[in-house]
Structure of TolC family protein:
Amino acid sequence: MILRAFLLLALSVAPALRADVPAAEMPLLPEEVLAASEEHFPSILKALAQRQAALGRVTESLGAFDLVFGADGFDRVDGFYDGTAIGGKVIKPLRPLGAQLYGEYSLSNGDFPIYEDEYFTNNGGTAKLGVLFSVFRDRDIDSRRFGQIDAELALVQAELDVLLTKVGVQQRALAAYWRWVAAGQELAVYDNLLRIALERETGLEREVTSGRRAAIFITENRQNITRRQTLMTGARRDFEVAANQLAFYLRDETGQPLTPDVQRLPAEEQFGVLPPVPTIASLDVPALLEQRPELRILQTGAERALQKIALSENELKPRLDLNLELAEGIGSIGEGGASRDGTDAIVGFTFTVPLERRQAKGKITQARAELESLRQDQRRLEDQVEIELRNILLELDTARELMELAKQDVELSETMRRAEVRRFEQGASDFFLVNIREETAADARVRFYTAYQRTRVAQANFDAATVNLSRLGIDEGF
């Protein structure tokens, strides 16, 4: 009676991996994990929000070239003069030559003092059309064009940051997934090992009762049950920890972490085929470096620094702005006389030159130092990435080799186990050797799953290093 209670307790502590899995419980495959993490993982959503903010800054920078309308006017309500004037102006900034295109219309009525003579118009008003452009300073770049270029480059960096975040998240998601799979397989191995000992207990009781075996065999088997139950408890803990870690990436439709059940473990035949291991000589390392988002972020940062240098150098130049304007009187001659009638063509200029220019020189020094810093970061990162790629390939190749050796060990130990069980059943072996063979075979299988996990993690690291979007489950348009 006590023995039966003990067996029931052992079965309750050891979670069985039953074959009768409900049809609704589909095996959890890496594609599902990758899809969930790409869509719902907070770090990716944060990077997407920052990209949206960068897109908003691009729109904001374009506002510097918006069409602007303004109007003003006045009316003398008392005094010697009774002049009234009203005018409107439309300004459209242009990108070439830092130009501005403008049009004006003004209309006046009444009498003005001589110091306000410019307000006189024909009775139909005066229309003006003009263009203002830069010859030296602001010709190639100005604060408006710099703002737009810088915002567009910042958007490129934000998009690359989204890619960088996705690559990192998907790499870690795959590592968590294969850790969960390996822990689940280890749990299955120790579950099977414990069940063998539990099932053997009944047979041993019959044999002891019939006198075929000594009672000490029952004691030894109970010792095996306790030891295997200890292994089972540890494996269960490791599996639950791995499931909780996987839930960080596996999320439901609302973005909440979803802890996978043991019944969702895939069968070994569902693991998929491992791709062949390339050699470093077969890889186009410069092309791979160009694909790395962190390097492209630094390259874009260098472009932004170059734009800062160009803007600061622009501030060292003298300003010479030319203004071309046509003015046309409309309607009959007004109170200002015939001088407002007809068409006027006007050419004007403004000239200023900075003398000390310390502000611009300081900005140039800062921007050049920033550019040099970014270039050194880029050089360091290129060397680091190439070395990491070599090490990842070495790790991948070694992991594959160790996995194959572990697979051979499983086959050999399983052969030894079966042979020892047959010998024991025929009375040619002892109970101690049978247990040793069973546990050795179980340990070999656990080592195989550990080696397989390391191989899969190394493959995920390689896919991340080479920015293999399809294997990382990342949408090509990201």
Observations:
- The CA atoms of residues 312 and 359 lie 9 Å apart.
- The chain has a mean pLDDT of 87.
- The first strand starts at residue 68 and ends at 75.
- The two ends are 63 Å apart (CA to CA).
